[in-house]
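Incident log, entry 3
Record: FGGY-family carbohydrate kinase (508 residues)
Problem: checksum mismatch between cached and fresh output.
Input:
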Amino acid sequence: MTAPRTCYIGVDVGLTASKVAAFDTEGRELGVVHARTPRTSVTAHHHDVDMTGLADTVVSLLGELAGKLAADGYAPAGIGVAAHGNGLYPVDASLRPVGPAIASSDSRAQRIVDAIPAEQARRLARETGSIPWAAQPAVLLRWLHDTQPRTYEATRWALSCKDWVTSQLTGVASADFSDASAFGMVALDTRAYSATALELVGLPATDLDRFPPLRQSGDVVAGLSARIAAATGLPEGLPVIAGCMDCVAATLGAGGRDLGDVTIIVGTWAINGVVVPASTPAPGVTLSALLPDPATMLAMEVAPTSAANLEWLASAGVPHGQTGGVPAADLLKEAATVPPGAGGLLFLPFVNGAPEHPAASGTFLGISGMHRRGHLTRAVIEGVAQYHRVQLDRVLASGAGIGDRPWRLAGGGARSEVWAQIFADVLGRPVRRQLTTELGARGVASLLPAALGHDARPWSVSDGDDLCVRPGPDRDAYLRHSEVFDRCLAGMSAAWSEVERYRTADPG
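Fresh output:
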């Protein structure tokens, strides 16, 4: 009888979809299963997550994948979980939810951030590499304190999304450095929790006790519990590591590990990161996340302003109350037939808002009777690329050291040739497409061989010159497009604020 072959399981929980994938000892994808991430409610500023439904979804996916692996003769050696950072997943001492989770795209607590003096915000950035923003756990804990005091008092552990999933797999509350540092909760000099983020929002330092002990991303937390083993068919005691924030996992999956490497991820969130030394002073970016290599961290500008805009357009024509939509591939094929500039149509990619523009909403400018669906799609993907550029300009101005290698482009923008070319033309830089579909799951799974003491080489990435896209003849057109985009963006604040007042006004 042939012995089963070793594989590693990575879980990637996104705001719209949850994926579980398996990889062989050389990092080749063996199989992937996915499902929509359960949500309780989504309004303009309140984005809640059904915690029990989320855990049940991941367990169901693990069981589905386990059956496929067993049928193919593979035996998993361990599990790692990645998920969106920030947000708040509050549980009691028995690891039971005390209410719905709050997603990282939520902005209900913006008023708390607005009340933090600028110099105090800079103090947090100097200490931790991250600035205060509305979906940080400290800010959301203060929101609970003010609006739901019973939930605040009942919260024993303030978990991240991936820590919630890991706790359900193992029965142990855990945290890792990547998530906690991106929360603005880890002092870069000491690598210990800091109470500064709590202090800035008026919470006591004792609330640090609500955050689980810190671990390296590759540390084994515990083995798979008997309950989850029975539900999935995976072996009881299967090692589960602490895992990492999805931005870090996807960057690892794309191969962005060396100092100066720039990685652009076109997912639900726009992720624009560069690998920098893990020390102070940190680059002046929105958030920095410590990488598994303790000498490095990922300095990032992020926002929910990327491929989710194309997903919205794909579903916008569906009758009310129904799901589905036009395949994104069909929309991108139509967009390829439209010249740069989409016939004078611009799109500001804020269907999910943006932390730096609190009232922002998705906005078409210049629409006319001659525009068709292909123009709309072209404008959307151009607008997404332009806002990535805006964020990358901040990274470049932050003091982060940038290498001279092509920037890595991953996610939906990499898998589309037309979109990848738009990125190269908008950025004015070569981009190297990373075509692996499940970068987050691959990145966190890549930590397992070393964590388990297995003799395995680092997993390869797509670095061939045939995947490198360079700025083309449309570069000049996109320089002008960038100028118009920036001026329109700068002039929209008053209009967005007026619309925000209109949609939040009491109809009575």
